[in-house]
Write a structure and sequence with these properties.
Layout: E1 2-5, E2 10-13, H1 23-39, E3 42-46, H2 57-60, H3 65-78, E4 83-86, H4 96-102, E5 105-106, E6 110-115, E7 118-123, H5 133-142, H6 145-152, H7 156-175, H8 179-182, H9 186-196, E8 200-203, E9 210-214, E10 221-225, E11 239-244, E12 247-252
Parallel strand pairs: 1-6, 2-3, 3-4, 4-5, 7-8, 8-10
Antiparallel strand pairs: 2-11, 6-7, 9-10, 11-12
Length: about 260
């Protein structure tokens, strides 16, 4: 199991879904980045930073205006505090080239995060949604090395069209699924914690922020679900997790 040790105050956020259609969310999130630089010793973004990611060359070759601004904001943040970027179900194609471009570090898909608040298992969280069989089949396919290589070998315009189709398909698919199916399976979370040797899991993905206690034969464990970000609709949503010597603090705050 990968392990990441960070000292001081660590902020963790997820599911910002930056894209051309989220200008209000982007402006608010960039103000959050400024606050993180002033108040935290490290920042971790654990997936779905972007609403879609079609390859690191998208950022290197004449990026659109919204992406160019995002890259600038992340570079500025990484120049002030350590910045870790993790892959989600929307941006799983982010790679080391993007991390190097930003001056950030690429987060493993699942990592034991060791901070002043203790050891906690951190991931994006979509792997825990095991009741959604169709999604898990899709996830296994698109995470296959040869599938990714074939996709990245296509031209950028073709990849953009495929990504747009995939987003429409995902939206339509969610409309026909129950919230139970799309939520994390408690047993999947508990099994992951047991393998990692931790009693607290942190993840995003479900857009259902909460701190929950799960009962196990070995005693209770904790599941912390990170907030998503959305300023395009009312009411606005935003938040993050702050980890320090006083513990883990889940903050839901739209002041940005």
């Amino acid at each position: 199991m990968n392990k990441l040790s960070l000292s001081g105050t660590v902020w963790v956020a997820s599911d910002i879904h930056l894209g051309e259609e989220t200008p209000k969310t982007a402006r608010a999130f960039y103000r959050f980045l400024e606050s993180a630089c002033d108040q935290a010793d490290a920042l971790i973004l654990c997936g779905d930073i972007f609403d879609a990611w079609i390859g690191d060359d998208h950022a290197q070759t004449d990026p659109p205006d919204w992406l160019a601004e995002a890259l600038t904001q992340f570079r500025q943040t990484a120049s002030r505090i350590p910045l870790w970027i993790g892959r989600g179900n929307r941006d799983f194609l982010m790679g080391p080239d993007l991390a190097e471009l930003l001056g950030a570090r690429l987060l493993p898909d699942r990592v034991v995060l060791s901070t002043a608040a203790g050891d906690m298992l951190l991931s994006h969280g979509d792997e825990y949604c095991t009741d959604d069989l169709a999604y898990q089949r899709f996830r296994r396919i698109v995470r296959t090395a040869w599938v990714q290589k074939a996709f990245l070998g296509l031209g950028l315009p073709t990849r953009r069209r495929i990504a747009a189709w995939a987003r429409r398909r995902s939206k339509a698919g969610r409309a026909g699924k129950s919230m139970h199916i799309m939520d994390a399976n408690p047993k999947a979370v508990i099994d992951a914690l047991r393998k990692a040797g931790c009693d607290t899991a942190i993840h995003g993905h479900t857009h259902r922020p909460a701190t929950q206690t799960l009962q196990t034969p070995g005693g209770p464990v904790t599941r912390i679900v990170l907030p998503d970000w959305d300023y395009e609709h009312e009411p606005a949503r935003a938040g993050w997790l702050s980890l320090d010597a006083q513990g883990a603090h889940l903050i839901q705050d739209t002041r940005f």
